[in-house]
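writing this on my phone so excuse typos. first protein, seq and then structure
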Amino acid sequence: MAITQYDTSLAQNVDGTVRRPSLRIDGGQTSRRPDSVSVESALSIAVEKSGTTYELGLTMRTPGEDEELVIGFLHSEGVIQSSDCLSSVQMGEDRVVVHLTDSAEFDPEALTRRTTMTSSCGICGKDSISNLLHIHGPELSESFIASHQNVSDSVSGLRTKQKTFDLTGGTHACGRAGPDGKITDVREDIGRHNAMDKLIGAALLAEEIPIDEEMVVVSGRASFELVQKALKAGFPAMVSVGAPSSLAVDMANEHGMTLVSFANQDRMTVFSGSNRISVD
């Protein structure tokens, strides 16, 4: 039975959220009221080069920062390396068309073959398992050093900036932090990979790629897709609140990235690159 009756309490004005009727049961008591949920909707992505438009398909995302999302995704796929590869970006309500310059390296057959995406799946369409660990990215900084306290500060700092999560409990977050643990930029999305793409896309548009003296902090687990995206952006260190996957650890070790997981105020586990973590 659909829930359609609820009270008229005002909704908080937070982008990427909508109000939906709900029946709340708490301590045996029921109440009907609207509740905030994160928006999930489809975004159509296309690339145009030399007069030909290539449809890359759909991704499910939380609307907002769509340009950053698509630019970050294309960077992680190796289509663009800098803003010099962009001629223009055409924005629609639920569609983004990226116009590439002639200098952009774009193999439409390869990219369209491996771009089946959902909000929870980053590169499910990759056509070769052997290509997953062996990627090309910028040289990672060996001078970056962070302490346990710095890592802890970055995690707590990220949490204070998750406004959509505070309201809905339904989004992931990625943030940039300096060696001192201070968060400088954050993006949220219903998909963890989208949040990372938005963060990296914003950095690329600001001409801050590669990122060489910062760590990227993620609010959930560390998957190999997130490690891959972080490596291509140049982050020497990645911090996750949750657990890493085996492929994430293997990829971080192969490329010399520092991977810290289960990070909080009291403890953390370093799975690779311990030379960049100092013990207080």
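second protein below, same order as before
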Amino acid sequence: MSAGEQNHLLPYARREDFHVGRATELSGRARFFYRCLEILPGLASWSTLIGVVLLSVYAPFVAAYFVIAFALYWVLKTAFLSYHLRYNWKRLRHHMSLDWQPMIERFPYQDFYHVVILPFYKEPAEVIEASLAALSRVRYDAKKIIVVLAGEGRAGEHAAEIGATMRERYGSHFGHFVTTVHPGDLPGEMAGKGSNASYAAERVRVEVLDPQGIKYNQTIVSIFDIDTVLYPDYFNCLIWHYHTAENPLKSSFQPVPIFNNNIWEAPAISRVVAMSSTFW
């Protein structure tokens, strides 16, 4: 990327190693250090499991104290999570009862645009359409919403066909509707949602933001799973938190995900995991 193409990036994003995705893309000491960091989580996990077995054989008292301390840690952690689970459930219900529209009138939000990136792979059209239908019903100026339906090239013709179909059905509902197909063989990339979303963000910058003269510091980007059904006041709530943040241009905002779209169609163990992950 040339110096001119990097003007829109923050200083840290202009570093040569910012886009490194794996150790093989580096060399020398940098590669060795990066590889050590990659190994560290797995090494710590395996060392703990194997270490407890060895300690139980060669130093049983140490192993016993370690197991007791570990169990005590999880008791305290469970109590901590349980308290915050209840607190945030009450907070969530309170936020859902608020009318956010009057609350943001004191902010200059009319010039702000929302870029909504929806990466998908081989999900069926019904799932994608449910997400777009919910997005089209939000209580916000639709002309300020830029939808990016980001398909994966590895999905074959499915991605292009879905993109064309959804653009025809929902393109008129929003200010802009962009479809992209992320190539599967770009050098230096790891396949997945992150690389797809990054590619889609660059495409919308080139195809919409720059040609329309939309300012970067007045653009808020939201990246969702393709099966996300948005809360109707999501953008009003997001605008409020953006304008009340101490440093909004260097802040990320995480909504509370509630995994209940198809909860009664999923296996029992999946329902338990989904509900346990809701208020992480």
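The beta strands are 113-119, 145-152, 176-182, 219-223. thats all i got for now
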